[in-house]
DNA sequence: TCGTACTGTGATTATAATGGTTACAGTTGT
DNA sequence: ACAACTGTAACCATTATAATCACAGTACGA
């Protein structure tokens, strides 16, 4: 899982928590604890999938483009991190003679793909609203 | 998922494919396509969990310490990659005033932990033997 | 018992991935 | 026109990853 997912979920939860469901990249970045430019990049991904509406120019910023109880973590994962379960390094050698060396990468690909699918099924069960509720009900660590 | 998992699975499948279920780190490294030293490090993790027996000295090497149909990918994941689903970067600020900034990291930790658990349930259903069979039955890409 | 072929592990280096930062063009309300 | 925003690309710093090196320890066999 890459950290764009974390940034995306945090940003959406933050927006969902605001009365007008709006904020600038500066305000979000400050809450997420990263750079506004990074927020804008992630928001750009979310906008393409309709989870965010943007308003440029003065008084602009980002607004939630969906209901918090409708956006699932699976949606967010698909928008920001699809494929990230698979490590970039691959074993074996496609051109070799040995069947194992030659086919392992493809078999592992399938396994990662199946595993990601299972993971998505799980993420499907959690929404942005659920995350917000978890925050409200989690005891602050002493 | 980190690539130690890939190395571990590949190595075990390779061993399982050999008549005597033995090989040196050099032979495994050559098949996996990495450095023998890396293989030895991963084998070290697997040995601690009993999936591998090692024999030092001349004529030594690694031998499968389990039945291929008993070692699940979940076992291998636990031995090599536990926790790797969680990105190293965390959002928010634990010391802050804002509930969201303050608690998001902990909530995301829980989510990652639950998700990893689901992933393990899935990996539980596949064994080293299954991976070997997949390799034997997968058509080589043209 | 010495030499060779192994493993075990720490240290170092090279490379790739990640996150932070800057820069600047485009947009919009005042 | 200008100030306050977003959109994106480019670049730099840091971190993570994989490769490599180094060398001590072990075991077999001549």
List the helices and strands and how they pair.
Two copies of one chain form a homodimer.
Chain A lengths: L2 H15 L4 E2 L1 H8 L3 H13 L3 E4 L5 E4 L8 H8 L18 H25 L4 H10 L5
Helix pairs in contact in A: 1-2, 1-3, 1-4, 1-6, 2-3, 4-5
The structure holds a DNA duplex (30 and 30 nucleotides).
Helix/strand class of chain A? mainly alpha
Order of helices and strands of chain A: HEHHEEHHH
What is the alpha-carbon Rg of chain A in Å?
19 Å
Major sheet strand order of chain A = 1-3-2
List low-pLDDT spans of chain A.
none
User: Largest sheet of chain A, described in full?
Assistant: 3 strands, antiparallel
Description:
The structure is a homodimer of 142-residue chains. Chain A has 142 residues and is mainly alpha-helical. Chain A has one domain: Arc Repressor Mutant, subunit A (Orthogonal Bundle). Chain A has helices at 3-17, 25-32, 36-48, 73-80, 99-123, 128-137, and strands at residues 22-23, 52-55, 61-64. Chain A has a 3-stranded antiparallel β-sheet. In chain A, strand 2 and strand 3 (61-64) form a beta hairpin. In chain A, helix 1 (3-17) packs across helix 2, helix 1 (3-17) crosses helix 4 (73-80) and helix 4 (73-80) crosses helix 5. The longest helix of chain A has 25 residues, at 99-123. Chain A is elongated. The model of chain A has no long low-confidence stretch (mean pLDDT 95). At the A-B interface, helix 1, helix 5 and helix 6 of A face helix 1, helix 5 and helix 6 of B. Chain A binds a DNA duplex (30 and 30 nucleotides) through helix 3.
């Amino acid at each position: 899982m890459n950290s764009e997912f974390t940034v995306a979920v945090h940003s959406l939860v933050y927006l969902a928590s605001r009365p007008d469901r709006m904020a600038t990249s500066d305000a979000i970045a400050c809450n997420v604890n990263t750079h506004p430019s990074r927020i804008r990049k992630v928001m750009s991904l979310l906008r393409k999938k309709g989870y965010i509406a943007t308003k440029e120019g003065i008084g602009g910023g980002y607004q939630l483009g969906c209901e918090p109880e409708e956006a699932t973590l699976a949606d967010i994962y698909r928008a920001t991190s699809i494929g990230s379960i698979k490590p970039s390094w691959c074993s074996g050698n496609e051109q070799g003679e040995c069947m194992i060396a030659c086919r392992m990468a493809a078999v592992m690909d399938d396994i990662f793909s199946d595993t990601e699918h299972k993971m998505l099924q799980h993420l499907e069960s959690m929404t942005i609203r659920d995350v917000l509720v978890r925050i409200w009900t989690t005891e602050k660590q002493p």
